[in-house]
């Protein structure tokens, strides 16, 4: 039996999902919650599920905050995020926080049940079909990158400097962070511009992001 805690602040959505899961003989919703704090309290009370199915946007404590705490305190519990947010930024944030799955709320019942069973019986992460196809399409239409960083002879230190430049740090601030001189950082910046054939710092950053030198 797969034990589920269902965390969703909208009653209609929560009741609908609960009703759907009740039809499955191998899935049991052992508790419901309307925010992350309630989920943590349920866990403290000793009701431990196999999976937490949670919305991202909830009052008091969001699903994102909740999954970060659960991944630390209860690493064996798997969390599937259920959301209308389809931007890759939120998907990455969820997985970095410790989520095991990410599903859009408009998935059909079969895919939701499949995702729960898949996540429970494997160590694989799961992204719903719609998001997978969308991300694949985006990758297929991304600019071609036909070189490696090594082809430009960019050193690890130069990549570090480039990342800090992209974050908006000044030459002096970068020098302080990397325990070197401002003049050295200025030299690194100029060398990067020359190696990439760009005209200025703004063009350099754009070039680096488009060609996956930094993210």
Give structural notes.
- With 215 residues, the protein is an alpha/beta fold.
- The chain folds into 2 domains: 2-138, Rossmann fold, CATH 3.40.50.2300; 149-210, Orthogonal Bundle (Arc Repressor Mutant, subunit A), CATH 1.10.10.10.
- It is built from 10 helices and 6 strands, in the order βαβαβαβαβαβααααα.
- The protein has helices spanning 11-22, 36-44, 63-73, 88-97, 109-121, 129-140, 156-166, 171-177, 182-196, 201-210; strands spanning 2-7, 27-33, 51-55, 78-83, 101-104, 126-127.
- A 6-stranded parallel beta sheet has the order 2-1-3-4-5-6, with helices on both faces.
- Strand 1, helix 1 and strand 2 form a beta-alpha-beta unit.
- Helix 3 runs parallel beside helix 4 (88-97) and helix 8 (171-177) crosses helix 9.
- The longest helix has 15 residues, at 182-196.
**What's the pLDDT, averaged over the residues?**
88
CATH class of the largest domain: Alpha Beta
Largest sheet: 6 strands, parallel
Strand order of the largest sheet: 2-1-3-4-5-6
* Element-by-element helix/strand order: EHEHEHEHEHEHHHHH
Task: State the domain count.
Answer: 2
Estimate what percentage of residues fall within beta strands.
5-15%
**Segments where pLDDT lies below 50 for 5+ residues?**
145-150
Q: What is the assigned CATH homologous superfamily of the largest domain?
A: Response regulator
Query: What structural class should be given to the helix and strand makeup?
Result: alpha/beta
Helix fraction by DSSP (H/I, runs of at least 4): 40-55%
